[in-house]
């Protein structure tokens, strides 16, 4: 039986949940509801990361922090990057590495401690066998790890289910096994509840992988607004609360018409089940 000390888990929500042109209003709402932070898809805020100055990045961080919020993590970090791919060629990997180094630099400027590696389309192994693809991924992540560790950031590899057109690391335990073999500071695994729901994985998987979890996304299949996907978060929330993971809980859901109500409802459900100490907004 796991005995876990009581602690307050901090709760954030991804900026995927609101329109880009409503960012100021959304940040005010997020702070008012009681969230502790906001997770960023950086391209939605800054556009091309190679063109934005770190001074502008830090200015945005101050806007967030002035509201009493933090930026714990970045996601969607490979969106729109041209010529980058994990398996296509050594040149495509070099482009991906160069971009991920820039992401780490931006994360450090934001004081974000996690960068989520999802990008299912950029990790299609093609004709590579499973062992060949695994070896390429291990070497790739070991190459990147020191840069992230030196900046106090973790690159968290996320399992994406086949429903999301993913063909490499589609299950939670596969993400765990990859990170176990990389075994380097600067690389961890991303836990996503949507993946667990879609794959019908045993909630107990969370206990088995707990020592490699670097970040947690609470999501539902197809990134539906939290509470609308017809899934039961209770067993997963129990496993997360009883695990040794002590980092952030971050809500990931897509934009919906009534995004303000969706934020409120997500805060209430996730705050109650996964964080316990959060009250109803």
Automatic annotation (TrEMBL):
Hydrolase in keyword set: no
One Pfam assignment: AP_endonuc_2
GO MF term (any one): isomerase activity
Keywords on record: Isomerase
InterPro entries for the chain: IolE/XylAMocC-like, Xyl_isomerase-like_sf, Xyl_isomerase-like_TIM-brl
Organism domain of life: Bacteria
Gene3D superfamilies assigned to the protein according to its UniProt record, in alphabetical order: Divalent-metal-dependent TIM barrel enzymes
Protein name, per record: Sugar phosphate isomerase/epimerase family protein
Organism: Microvirga arabica
Phylogenetic placement of the source organism: Bacteria, Pseudomonadati, Pseudomonadota, Alphaproteobacteria, Hyphomicrobiales
């Amino acid at each position: 039986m796991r005995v876990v000390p009581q602690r307050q888990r901090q709760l954030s929500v991804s900026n995927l949940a609101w329109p880009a042109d409503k960012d100021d209003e959304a940040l005010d709402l997020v702070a008012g509801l009681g969230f502790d932070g906001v997770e960023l898809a950086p391209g939605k805020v800054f556009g091309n990361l190679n063109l934005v100055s770190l001074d502008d990045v830090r200015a945005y961080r101050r806007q967030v922090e002035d509201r009493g919020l933090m930026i714990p993590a970045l996601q969607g970090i490979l969106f729109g990057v041209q010529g980058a791919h994990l398996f296509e060629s050594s040149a495509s990997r070099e482009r991906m590495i160069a971009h991920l180094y820039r992401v780490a630099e931006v994360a450090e400027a934001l004081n974000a401690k996690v960068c989520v590696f999802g990008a299912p389309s950029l990790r299609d192994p093609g004709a590579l066998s499973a062992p060949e693809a695994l070896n390429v991924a291990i070497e790739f992540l070991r190459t990147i790890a020191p840069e992230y560790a030196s900046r106090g950031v973790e690159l968290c590899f996320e399992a994406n289910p086949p429903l999301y057109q993913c063909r490499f690391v589609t299950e939670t335990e596969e993400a765990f096994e990859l990170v176990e073999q990389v075994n380097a500071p600067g690389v961890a695994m991303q836990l996503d509840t949507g993946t667990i729901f879609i794959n019908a994985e045993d909630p107990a998987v969370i206990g088995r992988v707990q020592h490699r979890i670097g970040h947690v996304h609470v999501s539902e299949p197809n990134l539906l607004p939290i509470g609308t996907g017809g899934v039961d978060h209770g067993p997963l929330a129990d496993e997360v609360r009883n695990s040794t993971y002590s980092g952030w809980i971050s809500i990931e859901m897509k934009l919906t018409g009534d995004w303000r109500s969706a934020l409120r409802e997500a805060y209430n459900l996730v705050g109650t089940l996964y964080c316990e100490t959060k009250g109803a907004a």
